[in-house]
Amino acid sequence: MKNMFKFANIARRLVAVVMAAGAAAAFGGCAHGDSLGVPAAASVGAVKPLVVIDAGHGGSDGGGVSVNGVPEKGINLNIAATLSDMLRAFGYRTVLTRTADVSIYDKSAEGAGLRAQKLSDMKNRLALFNTKDAVCISVHQNRYTDPVYHGAQMFFHRENAEGAQLAECLRARICSLLQPDNQRETKPMDDELYLLCNCKNPAVMAECGFISNPEEAAMLEQEPYQRQMAFALMCGMNDFCYNTGRLNT
Ligand SMILES: [Zn+2]
User: Fold this and answer.
1) 40 lies in a domain?
2) How far is it, in rounded angstroms, from Cα 246 to Cα 121?
3) Distance from Cα 142 to the centre of ligand 1, integer Å
4) Residue 91 C-alpha to ligand 1 middle, in angstroms?
5) Which 3 state secondary structure label does DSSP give 192?
6) What is the 71 CA–ligand 1 centroid distance (Å)?
7) Number of other residues whose CB lies within 10 A of the CB of residue 181
8) Which helix (H) or strand (E) holds 139?
9) Quick one: which of 219, 234, 226 has its CA closest to 88?
10) Is there a domain that residue 15 lies in?
């Protein structure tokens, strides 16, 4: 039963990837790809970059809650896992910080209280982000007291020059493929965000949209839009890897 469930999940994701490939043409396609607009597959012998994808929150930490009562953690995981599948379909290596609704704290933090578990969880996510030569993205959803605000926004650490480049590539793809009216600029952060501030690799926190906005929350809670968001992120990631020479090594 468990295996059947797993297979159904994989099959659904594969269908999603194939649909995404089709969507590449419909959307006008990724740059640097073939005539269908699909990202170029890795050439023989070339090793594509490692992308570490963090699905924000998990387990007892649900993150923000949408206007419909849906916790952020599940939306983050769906987008992150689909992004991983799509990148792999194009030859990238990927690692997810979590693949289920869990916190990834050490066993030693068991029973040590929520704060100790959260610290351990973040340390473990950071260790993955600092894997040699990785490109990193942390997937989150935004929220605000005023429900009027909407649209994705990318955050990077002020001193991470490649993080800024990655943020711009992701922003550009989300705007061109999904949110043509989005005027939000990428935002440099100081030391507010632990993962960004301590990551030695290019890293971005992708706030995919506002779950405090009723229309955007309704879309972010549905798989079709989650897949579209994952596809836009994949194209942005691919643009970054191409622009920075990571696809030629
Ligand atoms: Zn979050």
Assistant:
1) no
2) 29
3) 7
4) 28
5) coil
6) 10
7) 7
8) strand 134-142
9) 234
10) no
Q: How far away, in angstroms, is 212 Cα from ligand 1 center? A: 12
Task: Please tell me the distance between residue 188's alpha carbon and the centre of ligand 1 in angstroms.
Answer: 17
Q: CB atoms < 10 A from the CB of 129, how many?
A: 23
Q: Which of 207, 240, 249 is nearest to 32 (CA)?
A: 240
Return the half-sphere exposure (C-beta side, CA atoms, 13 A cut-off) of residue 100: 3
Tally of CA atoms within 13 A in the half-sphere of 228 that contains its CB:
18
Q: Contact, 209 vs 219, CB < 8 A?
A: yes
Q: Among all chains, which residue has been given the structure tokens 């689909």?
A: 82
Q: Tell me the three state secondary structure of residue 225.
A: helix
> Around 155, how many Cα atoms within 13 Å sit in the side-chain half-sphere?
19
- Are residues 202 and 240 in contact, defined by beta-carbon separation less than 8 angstroms? yes
Q: What is the pLDDT of residues 131-178, one digit of tens each?
A: 999 999 999 999 999 999 999 999 999 999 999 999 999 999 999 999
Residue 50 sits in which domain range?
Answer: 46-243
pLDDT 10s digits, 71-121: 999 999 999 999 999 999 999 999 999 999 999 999 999 989 999 999 999
Question: What CATH number is given to the structural domain containing 53?
Answer: 3.40.630.40
Residue 28, in any domain of the structure: no
The sheet carrying 50-55 orders its strands as 93-96, 50-55, 134-142, 203-210, 153-157, 187-189
Q: Domain count for the chain, please give it.
A: 1
- Exposure b/e, 75-111, CB count within 10 A at least 16 = b: bbbbbbbbbbbbbebbbbebbbbbeeeebbbeeebee
* Å from CA of 68 to ligand 1 middle: 16
Q: Is residue 76 part of a domain?
A: yes
State what percent of residues in the chain have pLDDT above 70: 81
